[in-house]
Design brief:
Helices cover 30% and strands 20% of the residues. With 326 residues, the chain is of the alpha+beta class. A 5-stranded antiparallel beta sheet has the order 4-5-8-6-7. Strands 9-10-11-12 form a 4-stranded antiparallel beta sheet, sandwiched between helices. A hairpin with a 2-residue loop joins strand 10 (240-249) and strand 11 (252-261). Helix 5 packs antiparallel against helix 8 (164-171), helix 10 (271-277) packs antiparallel against helix 11 (284-295) and helix 11 packs antiparallel against helix 12 (307-325). The N and C termini lie far apart (52 Å).
Amino acid sequence: MKPFCYERPHDAKSAVALLDGSDGSMFLGGGTNLVDLMRLEVATPSLLVDVSRLPFDRLEESDSGGLVIGAAMRNSDLAAELQVRRRYPVLAEALLAGASGQLRNLATVGGNLLQRTRCAYFQDVTRPCNKRNPGSGCPAHEGEHRNLAILGWSDDCVATHPSDMAVALAALDAVVHVQGPIGQRTVPLVELHRLPGTDPSLDTVLARGELVTAVELPPPSGRSAYRKVRERASFSFAIVSVAASLDLSDGVIREARVALGGVAHKPWRATLAEQELRGKSPGESTFMRAAERELETARPLRDNGYKIPLARNLIVRTLCELVEAT
């Protein structure tokens, strides 16, 4: 690991100023992703700005009846909150499906959202990678890509976003609160992360020096759940995951929200499936049509076409479970 400087600011304004004033600086939350990348020399910051102890570690009710989650709150603490488990089970389930207990005790909400979208080639500095070194190429296209993207990928990158929590937040219509050099703003969670396009080195729409301070959830509506398929029972990224919420009224689907993980460079909001579901009677055939409509846009690579039926079946199963639980 290369030498670096370390600062622990006492407020968000100071943290933003430190990062904005140094080209080689990075925010440090729990460090569960960044420190690994530093050990591999994928990330080589000259200054770490520790924001994990800023006063953003609380859970509060919003004026609208939703919840405001501080960005420094630990994943394990958030998953254990009674309000989250009762009102937003999809979020609690997603948090508990992520990483290991030890990592959840360290990882912060903001850090989880901003972890790098990555694959094995990104983490191997001996190999080319457009995310790490723009213009060097993407060996995953013809190499190992069995667990990589089937939606929204580009010629420059086929990596998948690893966060379980972010998929649940995408399905919940969460909004991210940000503080930067020119003030505060909010970003819808579904717009925070980027698809790779021609510059996969940019994972989010955040500008230099912008700090995530909180995530706001609207009041819950309907039942929700998170389901994840992975290669082992714990400490494994999703091959495919589904976060879903269904609001039923008089035997029809009034509102449906579905997001997918493990299939794209960002949490994938399944808007085509949602359009197919609204106003329809719930049932396996309805859910199958919705899943198939969403996956019509999938472009599998040589070895990951199995993700299409897997995603379709997981969407159907998750939605059926929500109906059965009502």
